[in-house]
Amino acid sequence: MKTSRRPLRRVRRAFFAAAALSATISALTLVLPAFALQLFGSVLPAGSLEALWIIVGVVVGVLAVAGIVDFCRTLILLRAGLWVDHTIGAVLVEAAILRGGDAGTLRSEADAIGAVRKVLTGGRLGSALELPWAAMGCAALLFVHPWLGAGALFVVAISYLSCRIAAGRSLGGGHRDNDRAGRWLEAVAPQAGELAAMGAAGGVAWRWEQDNRGRTAKAYHLGWRFGLANALARVSQPVGIAVVVATGAYLDITQSLSPAAVVAAALLVMRAQSTIEQVIGGLQEFREGRAGWRVLVEAERTLGPTSSGHPGAVGGRGGEILLEAVYSFDAREQKSGLSNVHIRVEPGECIGVIGARGAGKSTLLKTMAGVVAPATGRIAVDGRPLALHQRSMTSRAVGYMGENCTLLPGSVAENIAGFEGHSIDAVAAAATRAGAHDMFSSLPNGYDSDAAGSASVLTFRQTRAVCLARALYGSPRVVILDEPELGANDREIAGLCEVLQGLRRDGVTVVLATADPRLLQSTDRIAVMTRGRVECLLPSRQLANSGANVGAASAAGLARAA
């Protein structure tokens, strides 16, 4: 995917373009007050039908142009909203995933995208952009007569006060309370049956109500403020018109102002009040959109430089992996992961990783694949940082199959291709390299079969086969496999051995964690791990000749056997 350091730039440009068009629309709609001035000031006293039809035609033409400009503004904002959803959303979500963002971060950015899109496409933003010009039109009445201008500005001030009352303070902690209550329910849901059996349902519900109480109180006060603001707006509009008309009538009686100016002033005030009323109705939408925009701006700052496709691609086969002084920490289990790991895997080499349970095999492979970021140290593929190689499924340098294979809702083909745009030929090629093309073709719907969810018909081994094909999709230069033999019978393990031999013939670098000696026979060297360290790195042939049981022996025993 092509990304940019500033994907919000186009939305900013759309906003300024919409603001410029709003100024144009406001200028064009001044034709109505001008029409009133001409109608009551010249046409009616002269009694000229020809002049009447001419000015009516001019007014209709100008208003038609204003309608066209308004439609163009709407299209600009709609396209900006689609840009937020289809492009900016994908860029920011991709960046959050690359950063290892948790579910809360992803949900927050998704909510922010929705809030900004709602403002851009909701229709009220145009009224907000026209509001300053409407107020300036009322202020211009000061040049017609100070009293008339003062009355118009008084009406605008009352309407503005309604906005301020509705705005009040932001929800603040209410959102946090709502998030806390939602997280509580998410934690409760998997244990609902056990909690009910223990009689804890009442206590759990009480805790949720306490967490949700702040949100409820904030919603009540917000509704109260908006109700008051709407009531003031409904009263201020007719009262404002009455004030302006009464002021104009007084000035007309005293022969200080013509009736045409009174009508023109009333039209200006009506437009200003109508605009203010629409803005009041969208205040909550604007507030949420502004908060969402701040979230998107903050997320935008985390983006890397402009890139397109796979920035780490280099000529030749490549595939060298280098770990230097790598330390890691498992935050979930609160324990050390890797400890001062130094290892170099040559291009096209196949390395087996063995060790007792908890020795750090999976952590090492996750770190090599970029799933786990090291606390300190350096990881490079072909001399460049690992993160630069993982931008796209079709151009990545490293393919990874974890010990715990997880598929997402979607078809087998979509899961293999990582939900990027793909051709069935590329998907079938990856499945063929994984030795699973016949398996997937025999499914009820072939590659279109559901891979996860209630409609999935995949077995455990078929699920792992999808994960293996996903690791091989796009022909990565490095393939990292964590115990691919889990749940496999002798025939399937023989097929895995053929897959490894095929990868070696293609010059692919392979790092394999396994305790199966048949798979280890396909490796060049074996890394023996204990307590997060690579104790030794020994030739596989030498261990095989010594007759050591690599699946059960200790690190020290393997070193002595070699």
Q: Which tags fit this structure?
A:
562 residues; six-stranded mixed beta sheet; 3 domains; Rossmann fold; 10% strand; ABC transporter transmembrane region fold; alpha/beta
Map the helices and strands.
Elements: H1 9-28, H2 31-46, H3 49-98, H4 103-121, H5 125-139, H6 141-144, H7 146-167, H8 173-188, H9 192-198, H10 201-253, H11 259-281, H12 283-300, E1 321-327, E2 329-330, E3 335-336, E4 341-345, E5 350-355, H13 361-369, E6 376-381, E7 384-385, E8 398-401, H14 412-416, H15 424-433, H16 437-441, H17 460-472, E9 478-482, H18 490-505, E10 509-513, H19 517-520, E11 525-530, E12 533-539, H20 540-546, H21 555-561
Parallel strand pairs: 5-10, 5-11, 8-9, 9-10
Antiparallel strand pairs: 1-4, 1-6, 2-3, 6-7, 11-12
What's the gist of this structure?
The chain has helices spanning 9-28, 31-46, 49-98, 103-121, 125-139, 141-144, 146-167, 173-188, 192-198, 201-253, 259-281, 283-300, 361-369, 412-416, 424-433, 437-441, 460-472, 490-505, 517-520, 540-546, 555-561; strands spanning 321-327, 329-330, 335-336, 341-345, 350-355, 376-381, 384-385, 398-401, 478-482, 509-513, 525-530, 533-539. The protein is 60% helix and 10% strand.
